[in-house]
Write a structure and sequence with these properties.
Distance between the termini: 25 Å
Largest sheet: 5 strands, mixed
CATH class of the largest domain: Alpha Beta
Number of helices: 12
Strand order of the largest sheet: 3-2-1-4-5
Number of strands: 10
Strand content: 15-25%
CATH architecture of the largest domain: 2-Layer Sandwich
CATH superfamily of the largest domain: ATPase, nucleotide binding domain
Order of helices and strands: EEEHEHEHEEEHHHHHHEHHEH
Length: 297
Amino acid sequence: MLSSSGNNEIFLGIDGGGSKCKAILVSNDNKILGTGIAGPANPLHGYEQAISSIAESAKLALKNAGIDESELGNIIAGVGLAGVNLPVLFEQMSNWQHPFKKMYLATDLLIACLGAHDGKDGAVMITGTGSCGFSYVDGHPYIVGAHGFPHGDKGSGAWFGLQAAKQSLLSLDGLIPHSSINDKVLALLNVKDDVELVEVIAGKPAAFYALMANLVFDSAEEGDKIALDIVTQGAEYISHVARQLLKQNPPAIALIGGLTPRIKPWLDKDIKRQLIEPKHPPEVGSVIYAKQQLALK
């Protein structure tokens, strides 16, 4: 049986986003014991799905560490989630009758920033399924974006995928020139025309649209004009977010998220020069957060 006191405490770090939930199990001396990945965990897109994914990823991390899942109740969890920047969702998740010994809840923005800068002050732009900017300087959090898809999250995977779908429909209707995006979207979704395309994409969540993001970058790198326009728009937005964050005078700024390797080359040169490599992934930031909160008690 695990001991959850003194130097034998076990920490669970959770990074829950619109596409997946990552879990990492860490010893008190920062050794990684196990990891796990489950489904989406943004409560904005479903509370039940979110708590199910958190619990599943935690159990998978325990299994990976060779620890029985009955030990969940002895583990201290740092849980960083997309969506909980909205007070109503933060309250809902805070009231969850979680299976852990203790749970310290934070936004995915804060844990990403803490992870990227090893618990120190800094700023991050997140370009994954969603997009946003966040800085934490002298105890002051500052958010740019984080408004959610489809009304926000410009420059995100979901936004790029939505643009691909929109442009494909316009092109298939003959209203704009043909783009190689069309062929890639139709092939990926296994449809043959605009009617079938609409049937497949109607009502789909952000994670679904994010699956089409890479197609836009592929077409842009092939020189497709419509794709180039989309990528330029998205990259300009992320560059603007960076400039807004830099006004907060963070010691360092990093770009993180699944879309990072695709969008980074398209950012403004002065922004690219200032980016540092993140020290740790967001799930480690959740562990850092939990340890910081525990130390305050």
